[in-house]
Amino acid sequence: MTQRVMSLEEAFAFAFKEELRFGELYKKLYHIADDEDAKELFRELSDMEVGHVERLKQLYSTTFQGKTPVLEAVATPGNMIGGKKLTVRSGLEFAVVREEYAADHYFMMADMALTDEVKSLLTALAEEEEKHAVLLEHKLDNLEL
């Protein structure tokens, strides 16, 4: 049995969807957090995800000769996440796992990149996602029970 490799266009579609979903998740967590430090972290992360989408749009246009990506709308997170009631703790736990997954995905995309510019940007995004995971883990470790 052969393993299917994701095309570069599919990888971009995944990346856009993940970045948009996380931006919405962090906005939701911002609104439910009581702790001001947590609120600030979620606001910053939401802004970073918006920045990632903008960088991905530019990269997509460069990679596909000026084409504009078609972005799918993402739903605002509800009151459940990963089968649990959405709380700051469950949101943090979910986000750590997904940020690590996104980092792995960006490293995979970088390995598929056809130019050094694309490879460099995707590697930078992967490293940023790893930093997000560390920030989230630190907040989770310091969250009062």
Structure description:
This protein is mainly alpha-helical and 145 residues long. It has a single domain, classed as Ferritin (Up-down Bundle). It is built from 4 helices and 2 strands, in the order H-H-E-E-H-H. Strands 1-2 form a two-stranded antiparallel ribbon. The model has no long low-confidence stretch (mean pLDDT 85).
Overview in brief:
The protein has 145 residues and is mainly alpha-helical. It has one domain (8-141): Ferritin, core subunit, four-helix bundle (Ferritin, Up-down Bundle), CATH 1.20.1260.10.
Widest sheet, order of strands: 1-2
CATH class: Mainly Alpha
Q: How would a textbook summarize the main sheet?
A: 2 strands, antiparallel
Overall pLDDT score: 85
CATH superfamily caption: Ferritin, core subunit, four-helix bundle
> Helix content range of the residues, please?
over 70%
In N-to-C order, the SSE pattern is HHEEHH
Q: Report the CATH architecture.
A: Up-down Bundle
Number of helical regions: 4
Instruction: Report the β-strand fraction as a percent range.
Output: under 5%
**Overall strand count:** 2
Structural class: mainly alpha
Q: How widely separated are the two ends?
A: 47 Å
In CATH, the topology is named Ferritin
Radius of gyration (CA) equals 16 Å
